[in-house]
Amino acid sequence: MKTPMKTSPLAVLGVLALAACVPPSPEPTPVPSPTPTPVASQPQPQAAPPQMVTPSFDDWMDAPQSPGDWTYTAEPAETLAVFGTGRTPDTVQLIIRCDLQTRRVSIARSGSTQRQVEMLVRTETQDRRLTAGGMTDPAPLIVAELAASDTLLDAIAFSKGRFAVDVAGTAPLYAPAWPEITRVVEDCRR
Asked: What number of other Cβ atoms are within 10 A of residue 67's Cβ?
């Protein structure tokens, strides 16, 4: 039988001392951050001005009402319902007019044309495409005429809240269906 080898306490201390002498691994050296280099300033390109986005609506009745109010005027030969933001010809956007002699009602939209164009009138219950022409007195207007008995006039007068008049080349107009329109139509039907 072999006798186990005895390790002297001094030898154990020597091994431990040697282990303690192993230097720790060095700390990593930090990488210096780069020094900014001055650069000559370049002119920045001009940003394009913001573009106006025209909202679109799935249903014309969801579009906001055009600004303005209706006024009623009775003259010896005609009665008028005038929609606009003021009383001058350049602020008038729409006119519903009864010619008391002919008993015809005209729908006149601000704008000008040298030829016949299509005027689309939209109401809650009826849409109709009318043929319209240009007129320049007292202001440039695009005008369509109807008989006083035409049912489109009733649809305009009784449309829920508003009706629309759209002519190519002009912004659609969303006018409220106020009593002034009904008065003009009734004047033509008497």
From this structure: 10
- The first and second tokens of residue 77, run together, are 């030969």
Q: Report d(CA 63, CA 56) in Å as an integer.
A: 8
DSSP H helices in the chain: 9-20, 151-157, 179-189
Buried b (16+ CB within 10 A) or exposed e, 120-138: bbbbeeeebebebeeeeee
pLDDT tens-digit series, residues 91-123: 999 999 999 999 999 999 999 988 999 999 999
Does the predicted model carry a pTM greater than 0.90?
Answer: no
Residue 181: Cβ within 10 Å count: 25
DSSP 24: P
CA–CA separation, 24 and 37 (whole Å): 38
Q: How many residues does the chain have?
A: 190
At 16, is the secondary structure helix, strand, or coil? helix
Looking at residue 50, its pLDDT comes to 61
The angle subtended at Cα 133 by Cα 93 and Cα 107, nearest 5°, is: 45
Please classify residue 167 by burial: count the beta carbons closer than 10 Å to its beta carbon, then call 0-12 exposed, 13-18 middle and 19+ buried: buried
Residues of the chain with pLDDT under 50: 10-19
